[in-house]
Fold these 2 entries.
Entry 1:
Amino acid sequence: MTTTINGILIGPVQDFPEGEIRPATMPDGTNLAVYNVGGTIYATADLCTHGEASLSEEGILTGNIVECPWHFGTFDVTSGAPTGMPCTVPLKTFPVKVIEDSVYVEF
Ligand code: FES
């Protein structure tokens, strides 16, 4: 059986441990924050939409919510929706596929 993959390989699934945030970079230089929430992997733009803090470097993941430590704004990483002030602009999200223990981001 042939599997068609429309995405960029960002690494093996073990590089994205549960409850953690890791960085990834797309071919055009776009930086992502990649989250493992209960075994499911999600990807968003790396920069907080409030003040451009790096969520992969400085964000704190609790369940499906990432908190930005600059001003304590929060987002739902599964949808990108802002969930806590001062963040009001959603994070861009990127679809993620895990195929045979490899993680791909559609781009
Ligand atoms: S920079 Fe993220 S909440 Fe202000």
Note: The two ends are 24 Å apart (CA to CA).
Entry 2:
Amino acid sequence: MVDSPGTALEWADVVVVGARCAGSATATALAAAGRDVVVLDAATLPSDTLSTHLLWPAGLAELGRLGALAAVEALGAPRLTEAFAHGGGYGVGAAFPAVDGIDYSMCVRRTGFDDALARTAVAAGAQVRQRRRVTAVLWDGHRCAGVRYVDAAGRIGEIRAKLVVGADGRRSTVARAVGADEPFLTVPSGRDCYFAYWRDAPDAARHVAAQWRAGADLGTAFPCDDGLVLSLVQPPVETGGGRGPGEAERRYTAALERIPPLTERLRGCERVGRVRSATGIASYFRRSTGPGWALPGDSGHFKDPVTAQGIRDALHYGRTLGEAVADVLDDPVALDAVLTEWERRRIVECREIFHWTNRLARGEAMRPLEIELYRAAVDDPDLARLTTGIFARTRRPAELYTPARALRLAAGALRHQRDDLPAVLADLARELRDAARDRHTTRTTLRGKSSRGAAPKPRSSLTTAGPGEHHA
Ligand SMILES: Cc1cc2nc3c(=O)[nH]c(=O)nc-3n(C[C@H](O)[C@H](O)[C@H](O)COP(=O)(O)OP(=O)(O)OC[C@H]3O[C@@H](n4cnc5c(N)ncnc54)[C@H](O)[C@@H]3O)c2cc1C
């Protein structure tokens, strides 16, 4: 074992790369169990990150389980007690289902939100260090055994650990370093994201989380902290055209103009700051565990923002990872078995919402069956609650499209949209094809896909020369 000159060397039970949602949740759970955890983040915290931030009740419940809910609520975002969705000429309002007694959503800007999470991890006993960029993982034979990092002054350090947790987002360095960056399932989004903050109007309904569909466009208004409202538009992916200065502004404004009710919602509001954009998005599953490493959060699995699931899942799978491994860190065989089972559970629990999300991310106008769903939900509060429950993760998409309900929706679409029968019939056929394809993906690509990929080749001594080693 040869250390680089000037390398500071430390030991910890677990080193976590990334201090936001997944990283802080993992670290909090491990530190609460008495484990020695060091969290490294390249960023200066508190700081913003490219993300909108609607939290369904399940996300808030996760905060409660971590002990971070009070700190997040103290940031002052209003409780959103009503979900409103409008499309195809129908507007549907619904209450949020309760998770752990929390029956509201919130939209909290990431700077304060992530800081509250990191502070929770510190309060639990984790060491959180900022401005440390991890550049490589260390190997001990075939096991991941730590990380190498560089600090803001250019000093190199190494931390040896029994487990390396890559909670370092979509462009994960750890995923690259362990050879897991190529997803085993990827679905490109049909939508781009553009968002901006507005100072909300004095008479605005600040308890409503609203979404509108207009043509192929989708737009939202979520009241958030500091008297602001976050407005995200997700127009279909625009191929070609520039990406230069002013493009995001142009595309955001153009999308707003195509969604008149959203423009109306923003009347009397004043724009604050620039438009931010996220394009070229894809949803994916990566192999997320191996000997001595794990990837909770976006590093291992990502869903298009259209259903706003990412923060909840990063918190949930970060926490459950920490809880699952805390007692087995000293036994590599038991640790790897627990990691494999943790990854398997995530795939099983996330695959339906993954398919559901990808359909909404297609960047198309509402289809006849969707329009019928909205129409039926106007007069059927149970149906509206069921649909909201899918986003809130209290209900499953399979509960919506039971054979009986699918038949009822099909019959309703044929009755209420008889001016366009060919479109309704084509949509029915497509729905059947899509459902069959999703089932096939679940049975094949996603079945048992947990840590079965090629493990890194064993080596005899501690080294950074791992397969897919990445120096950032
Ligand atoms: C446009 C957009 C809108 C979204 N809207 C929503 C929404 O409304 N609701 C929702 O729930 N989710 C939303 N998401 C998803 C959500 O942002 C993510 O799921 C969530 O941030 C994942 O958290 P994470 O901890 O895995 O990663 P991140 O939040 O990405 O944090 C990763 C951290 O790792 C650090 N890091 C990276 N590389 C290194 C390195 N080499 N060394 C050290 N540190 C490193 C980074 O500095 C960063 O702090 C959205 C995403 C996008 C892109």
Note: Residues 372 and 411 are 9 Å apart (CA to CA).
